[in-house]
Structure formats: C-alpha cells, structure tokens
Amino acid sequence: MLGPVLLAAARSDSIRRVVAAAPVTRPVVERFVAGERLDEAMAAVRNLAARGLEVTLDHLGEDITDPTEALRNRDAYLRLAEALKEHGLGVKAEMSVKLSAFGQALPGGHELALQNVTPVVEAAAEAGTTVTLDMEDHTTVDSTLVILAELRERFPQTGAVLQSYLFRTEDDCRALAGEGSRVRLVKGAYKEPATVAFQDKREVDRAYVRCLKILMAGRGYPMIGSHDPRMVAIAQELAHRNGRKPADYEFQMLYGIREAEQRRLVAEGNRMRVYIPYGTDWYGYFMRRLAERPANLAFFLRSLATRG
User: Where in the numbering of this chain does the Proline dehydrogenase domain appear (predicted)?
Assistant: First the structure.
C-alpha cells in the first residue's frame, strides 16, 4: 500500500528536499498547485470564473514551527482577501484555511489559531466572501469545531469540512446540519489509526453516503467534496429526493483533477467550486494528492520516466 508511505513522506524533510530538487517536480506540481504567488492564484481564479466555475483558495503553509510563521500565514490570507475585494471576485471565490497554519499545533495553539483566523474571517466578510475551515487529522477536530462555533456567532456563513472516514463524523454531520451551516464533506486524506477511522475504502464510501444523507436532509448547505462519479450521482439523487435546487448545494473538486467533469457539471446547471492551492509550501499538499489516488501517482511516475 503506497498511500500510507506517501502520507508519511509528506512530513519527511529529507524526502521533501529530494522531491523539491528533482527537475521533473515543478512541471508536475503545476497540475495541482496554481502557483507560488498571489497574482498567479488570482489569474487562476479569473480563468475559472470566466468558465462558470467558483473557487475556494488555500494558501499553503500548515507545517509551521513558531508563532511568527502563523502571523505570516495570517497576513497572506489578509492580502488574499484584499485582492478579492479589489477585483470584485468575492462572489466567485471563498477562502479555505487550515488552522494548523495559524498556530493550532503550537503551545497554546487553540487560542492562537482563533486569534489569528478571526481577522481573516473579518476581512473575508468585507470582501463579500467567506471562509471554510479545513479539517486535518483527528486530534484537531474538537478544537476546530469549537473555533467554528465561536466564529459563526459573528459570521454564520463560516464553513467547515468533515471527513467521512472518521467514526465520529455522522454525529458531527447531525450537529452541523442546521439552518445556515455550510459543510464540505470529504472522505479524508490523512493516515488515521483504526481506533478512530475506517480503514477499508468500501466502509469509507458507505460512511460518506450516510453522512451525505444527513446533510442533504438537513437545513444547511452541503458541499460535496468528491471526484468519485458514484458520489456525484448519489448526491444528485439525494438532492432531488430532498427537494433541493441547484442553488441549495454545490460540488467541489481539486484544481487539476477531473477538469472535464467539472465543466460537465457546470454545463448541466450545477454549482461547481474548484479548490485552488497556492504558495511556496506545496510539498505536503502535493504528496497527499499522490497518496489519494493511484492515477495521480501514475501521472507523476510517467512524468519522471518521460523527463528523466
């Protein structure tokens, strides 16, 4: 099983140096990452918006080691919010944040992350958009959901991500299926122990459907984060059963993956949002994309063979 190996490699500094130095890496990374600079990310936003797609932007940088880095990440998101406001793109683009990038894993991390993310959420509101809190490994879920609750007191449009492979997620879906709640449901991309998460892909898929049923039957706004054609079809059927119109939910897929399917969904009148990562700290994100799908890894290996 290469998935767990790649996930472990995502946190290895030595492997990071080897991958980053490989001549083939940058052209391949560009398939999944919009660029290292804000202007490159904004160009990707405009390009996708012109084709009827919406986006959510993630400034990469979750693996931080001190509060100064957390402040740099905060400031990067403040610049992003200002750019969205300046170009009038708040209606097309929201922002996704990982609270670890704001200091959640540091000493006193819960308070530090809340302190750093709050001005970002404020700036997003001023830009006419909102923020979704990405979910990371299972040790961060309680802290993330508490911060979500605090932010939603002032900014009820703040969204959250839930991962179907965690045993607890059905209960979390019930708690977040209320009026005004925005939930992106994904399968999960972190290596989790069998004590807290399903290990078998079929079990993860079944859990995804159970969670999706809860969200679609609720009064919130489900965001279907999946590239799986079966899950897309099931989501559409559940939306129909629950009387949801296309404006009452959306699909979300990653930048550079299943682009034809993204265009198809838009052409059929669905809301389709593309998750756009950008920034210099692309390594961990890139390795998780390789781990998620054998096709991604095969793409990378073919490129190595072609360019080697």
Answer: 42-299
